[in-house]
Specification:
By secondary structure, the chain is α/β, with parallel strands linked by helices. It contains twelve helices and twelve strands. Strands 11-10-9-8-5-4-3-12 form an eight-stranded parallel β-sheet, covered by helices on one side. Helix 5 links the parallel strand 8 and strand 9. Helix 4 runs parallel beside helix 5, helix 9 crosses helix 10 and helix 10 crosses helix 11. The mean pLDDT is 97. Bound molecules: NADP nicotinamide-adenine-dinucleotide phosphate (NAP). The site of NADP nicotinamide-adenine-dinucleotide phosphate has 23 residues, from strand 12.
């Protein structure tokens, strides 16, 4: 598995992360097989969040591998906090100091580990007090509970606001990105045009992250819309599938590999987060790190998804 650096840190991470949001659907044996296969493939970076399966995903994961210090050292573990499910079932966002610290303690106990390699703040909290986040991060770092910090679904100004108060660099930003959800790429291509693709919905987050050594982690790399389903093989995207299949045949690999290779071809050195629980599809995604699309292939696939060039 190809390695990249996490942000500007010395930590080497695999170019593809394994998302564990859907592990809640597996029984213990299947979960164990899945995680062991990932490790065998060199996919040892696992992405969690305290809200996945209401905490069950982290528990299922650590039970599946019989977590202990020897197993733990083979892995890079990332989790997220900041989405709070209240007693009445409503969901809020909470980046207050005590909530962040309490959340990390919950994550560590469910994952049966003493530390997280990376903690991300899951979704922007409108009521964020950056001073409180700074205090929480200082305590989590000095106690050894968290080694690196990042965010998710944040735009440049929000990152800059936080960073102004933090003593640690924000090294990752997890964002929705796939061939069919490529607005962060297309707004940079259609600058100042009178078309929808020119709309900047993210404050030029792609360029900002590149300029500031923040690793972008594309989530839902195979989904169209917001969890609307996989675009591969979907009859809503005939041209896209044709273009992907053509390149797949050229390389003698699956469509999954090519869809992943399309994200990896972008020079921002992103770390896509896969969501599959299928070991064959996971291996197909990992294979994408061994091939490189040509410029023509990349643009053909981009256009075939309905993305436009001026
Ligand atoms: N930061 C955030 O706000 C945020 C939000 C959402 C997700 N995430 C993270 O991102 C990870 C990935 O998200 P995701 O699960 O939506 O990603 P995804 O990989 O785009 O979608 C995974 C789903 O699509 C199916 N699938 C994937 N490839 C397929 C293919 N080639 N053919 C048919 N079905 C395919 C999988 O089924 P099978 O299991 O059967 O393959 C699974 O149900 C999550 O696990 C989580 O860690 C983060």
């Amino acid at each position: 598995m190809r390695q990249i650096r996490l942000g500007n840190t010395e930590l080497k991470i695999p170019a593809i992360a394994v998302g564990c949001m859907r592990i809640v659907g597996l029984d213990k044996k299947a979960a164990e097989n899945f995680v062991r296969t990932a490790l065998d493939l060199g996919a040892n970076f696992f992405d969690h969040a305290d809200i996945y399966g209401a905490g069950r995903c982290e528990e299922i994961f650590s039970d599946a591998v019989g977590m202990n210090s020897a197993v733990r050292e083979q892995m890079i573990l990332q989790s997220k906090c900041g989405i709070k499910v209240r007693a009445d079932g409503k969901t809020d966002f909470d980046f207050s100091r005590d909530y962040i610290i309490k959340s990390v303690d919950g994550i560590l106990s469910r994952l049966k580990t003493d530390y997280l390699d990376v903690l991300l703040l899951h979704r922007p909290d409108a009521l964020v007090e950056p001073e409180e986040v700074a205090e929480a991060f200082d305590r989590l770092q000095s106690s050894g509970k968290v080694r690196h910090f990042g965010v998710s679904n944040q735009k440049p100004m929000q990152i800059q606001l936080l960073q102004r108060y933090l003593n640690q660099p924000l090294v990752a930003n997890q964002l929705q990105l796939s061939i069919t959800n490529a607005t962060m790429i297309s707004n940079g291509i259609n600058v100042n045009m009178l078309n929808d693709s020119a709309v900047d919905r993210d404050g030029s987050v792609l360029d900002f992250c590149r300029m500031n050594d923040i690793t972008i982690q594309p989530w839902s790399p195979f989904q169209h819309g917001f969890f609307k389903g996989v675009f591969l093989g979907h009859d809503k995207f005939p041209e896209l599938n044709q273009a992907i299949d053509l390149v797949a045949a050229d390389h003698g690999v699956s469509n999954t590999t090519i869809a992943m290779a399309w994200l990896l071809r972008h020079p921002a050195k992103m770390q896509p987060v896969t969501g599959t629980m299928n070991t064959v599809r996971l291996a197909d995604s990992v294979k994408a790190t061994e091939i490189e699309l040509t410029r023509d292939q990349w643009y053909d696939i981009y256009r075939a998804a309905g993305n436009i060039l001026p």
